Amino acid sequence: MHTNRRLLGGSVALLAALVAFVGSATAHVEYVRPPGSQPANVVDFLVAAFTTPFIVGTLLVGFIAVLAGIGGYLYLRPFPADIAAFRAAMDDYRDLLGWLLRLSMGMPLIAAGFQGYLFSPSVTLPYPTALRLFGISVGFFLLFGLATRVTAVWALFVYLVALPSHPGLLLAFEYVPGLLAVALVGGGRPSADAVIARMADDDKTLYSQFDPFYRRVAVPFATRIKPYKELAPVVLRVGIGIAFIYLGITQKLMRPGEALAVVEKYDLTAIVPVDPALWVIGAGLTEALVGVMLIAGAFTRGFSLVAFGLFTTTLFGLPDDPVVAHISLFGLVSALLITGAGPYSFDAWLAERIRTANEVATRAADLTEPEPADETPTDD
């Protein structure tokens, strides 16, 4: 009976994930739209789409399937041993979180430097040499974990200063949570910072006699920031969630002309033969849903897996999509698989409720269990 319930719950949850996945093309429309694509009136597009019974019906079925999947999972709790093993495996990688975050930020920055754009392929400046030096140097410092926190803060400062005059940087908004998380977590290991810290901390090394930075700056700063390291998952999921919502709305729903041109360019209706408008609306709403769930910290690892699948489809399914523009999001979503939702999340609230309920049930069972008979021998 329990096995059947678990299989049913797993099937319902899988169905919800598939419904959310089908019809979603997560590429930034700005990066892949064909030349000459014409904008379309947003209001006319949405009115026409939401007055088409098939589109509305399909979206309602998808929404109900997602709710059914979540409800079925909460009620049936399928595959508890498998889920526990997966979480334990992810927890084993926590000591490599800093390394993963550095790769997620460093690699696309190096690529941006070599290709001459600032964070996003849509933002170029009339200073190609400065852009190359910035991207390559910051990227390599992050990649090797040298002066990691300082480098992350510097890169974030440049992003925020350039943002008001170059709103196209919002297409790469994931750099904000990513760089903040790097500043919180530090270089981790393996990194140049870890090697230097080991040498500076050993009084027997010659290097320790000439490095005033480690004991006077690095150690006090790390001690001061340590209580805030647990907020890294919060920063990641909220920032990535905002990026998803922004991309889903602005790149899909608010740019229907370009989005429809992308659907035609890649002949996506041959993959799933539905109205092109359903592709566009389905992609936008799916990304927005993933963003909302990440911000709320609800089923974070599950929706991170959905996002992981979306990025995989984009990276390998669209031949001319700039892969490096998605590495940052790809890596940060992978980091969320390791960290989970963290504090201030629905997942944390739910885990506490389940733990409390289990404790109450255990205590009630102990109270109702009959006390063992006294087997102390007595004199006849």
TrEMBL record:
It is a multi-pass membrane protein. Pfam families: DoxX. Its main location: membrane. It comes from the Archaea. The chain crosses the membrane at residues 51-76, 96-118, 231-249, 288-311, 323-346. It is found in: Cell membrane. GO terms for cellular component: plasma membrane. Keywords: Cell membrane, Membrane, Transmembrane, Transmembrane helix. This is DoxX family protein. It comes from Halohasta litorea.
